[in-house]
Specification:
mainly alpha
């Protein structure tokens, strides 16, 4: 189900608590990751748009949490959210992203907010983001997770380790 049009008014989000703003920003970023991590190499424009939207989340997410009535921050997050889920980024791309399905299990079991669960599964700081953006490894992990389900093994948790000893 998708709306034919929507009226977006950032002032309606001024009362959203800080924790929900953080969870919402994580959810927006997860929608972008869903289509960004793809084996499709011929989607240069879609990938650059996705990167711009991720940068918008990074820039304005914290600003909206620090000042809930920051119209610029709220309007940019709202616009980014709309662009993240309207299908534009996925045109011409084959996508396989199981994090969202895994999160539904997580939030059902632990009764946590959807965006918080997504943040847990894709937790990263700037340094780990660099290693996480290794597309081939991310795709491989998703294929492993999907294959486990296909084999009847159920959901599985997979963790990537970086090359620094003792860190993950």
């Amino acid at each position: 189900m998708a709306p034919k049009f929507s009226i977006l008014d950032p002032t309606n989000t001024f009362s959203v608590p800080k924790n929900q703003t953080a969870a919402g920003t994580a959810d927006i970023m997860s929608h972008i990751f869903e289509v960004y991590f793809s084996n499709t190499n011929e989607a240069y424009m879609q990938n650059r748009m996705a990167e711009a939207l991720l940068k918008t989340c990074i820039n304005y997410g914290e600003k909206a949490m620090d000042d809930p009535t920051n119209y610029e921050a709220r309007s940019n997050l709202m616009w980014t959210s709309s662009l993240a889920i309207n299908g534009l980024l996925s045109y011409g791309k084959e996508t396989e992203w199981s994090v969202r399905a895994m999160e539904h299990e997580l939030s059902a079991f632990y009764d946590i907010t959807h965006g918080v669960g997504l943040a847990i599964l894709t937790e990263m700081d700037e340094e780990s983001l660099k290693s996480y953006l290794n597309l081939n490894a991310a795709i491989a992990l998703e294929h492993i997770a999907l294959r486990a389900v296909d084999l009847g093994l159920g959901s599985c948790w997979i963790m990537m380790f970086n090359s620094k000893k003792g860190s993950s």
